[in-house]
Write a structure and sequence with these properties.
The chain has about 325 residues and is an alpha+beta fold. The strands form three sheets. It has a five-stranded mixed sheet with strand order 2-1-5-3-4. A hairpin with a 2-residue loop joins strand 8 and strand 9. The chain is globular, with a radius of gyration of 22 Å.
Length: about 325
């Protein structure tokens, strides 16, 4: 049996563990001691959560891949998802500004606002920022969350003639709040607790810079691989690319609170690092969609003509980040 944590093989001395459930229990204890969250495991291709860990003998399995996250990773991922949703919702509302929303669209929007409230409350709880005196704009954060909930709860029966404007304003304010939390001292403290040291992040940026041109070359090869029918090799390169982009995005969000950096202030050729990252995130979403539809032509075009120029630009932003951190 091979044990992996987050896809990486680890040395693990089996003592009293005889089943998969025992192994997962031991990993849970290991993670808890390090303030990590154990989210589940993939056992020979099957996903299991802690509450349904199987009593299968470890002699009958080939590998167990356990997934753990730091609390700061969960907070950062939640904030990223919140910002991405608000951005998508704003774009959808702008496209519908001259028409009315259907009953189904109103329900989806209502569910979206309820989800936003849930994410904000969870993030605040994990950051330890649930105080009533925490201010945002001209009210407390909790009052703002209450206004988001109230608007969303009543949206299906709303008679507000400025519904689109009100919803857009709330979504933009929510994105602002998410970004405030992303740069907060509370998140900085949480991230610092979750990494070895700021030197680790600095070295990760150096490593990422060394990976950029390799990813650019990979993107240039993908179209040719698909044309030759080497789909599996092309897919392997795409997975490597996605891993690189995940590490890059994660590092950007960790760099912000650790080094007190606002990535919106780092500009190259008239575009901020924050704007670049939003474009990359949007393209990743589009890539997933075309891959699900098995649209090889669109996938190749997106990777070569849209994503490759953005990857090339990462080089310059990392230089700016490293120079800023050194100074």
């Amino acid at each position: 049996m091979q044990l992996l944590i987050n896809d990486h093989p680890v040395d693990f001395a089996v003592e009293k563990e005889t089943t998969v459930k025992d192994i997962m229990g031991s990993i849970l204890n290991w993670a808890s001691e390090r303030s990590l969250v154990f989210s589940g495991a993939i056992v020979d291709g099957t996903v299991y959560q802690l509450d349904n860990a199987p009593d299968i003998s470890i002699e009958k399995v080939d590998n167990i891949n356990c997934y753990v996250q730091s609390v700061s990773d969960i907070v950062i991922d939640s904030i990223k998802e919140g910002i991405a949703y608000c951005n998508r919702a704003c774009q959808h509302l702008e496209n519908k500004s001259n028409t009315s929303l259907s009953a189904d669209e109103l329900l989806q929007l209502q569910n979206g606002f309820e989800w936003i409230v849930s994410v904000l409350q969870s993030v605040l709880h994990m950051l330890g920022l649930e105080r009533d005196d925490l201010r945002f704009k001209d009210m407390t954060v909790q009052e703002f969350i209450g206004s988001v909930y109230s608007f969303g709860h009543n949206i299906s029966s709303s008679t507000d003639i400025n519904l689109f404007t009100t919803a857009n304003n709330i979504l933009h304010d929510t994105m602002t709040l998410f970004r405030v939390l992303l740069c907060s001292d509370a998140l900085k403290s949480l991230v610092v607790q979750s990494v070895d040291s700021p030197d680790v992040l600095f070295q990760t940026l150096v490593d990422l810079k060394g990976m950029v041109q390799k990813q650019v070359k990979n993107l240039e090869e993908i179209a040719g691989l698909y044309q030759k029918g080497n789909d599996s090799e092309a897919l392997e390169i795409i997975h490597t690319l996605v891993d690189f982009l995940y590490l890059y995005m994660r590092t950007c969000y960790q760099v912000s609170p650790v080094f007190n950096i606002n990535i919106a202030e780092f500009v190259y050729n008239g575009q901020s690092l924050e704007e670049l990252n939003i474009k990359i995130q949007d393209l990743l979403t589009e890539i997933v969609s075309v891959m699900e539809n098995n649209d090889v032509v669109s996938l190749s075009d997106i990777l070569e003509y849209e994503l490759k120029p953005l990857i090339n630009e990462i080089d310059h932003y990392i230089d700016i980040l490293l120079q800023n951190i050194k100074s």
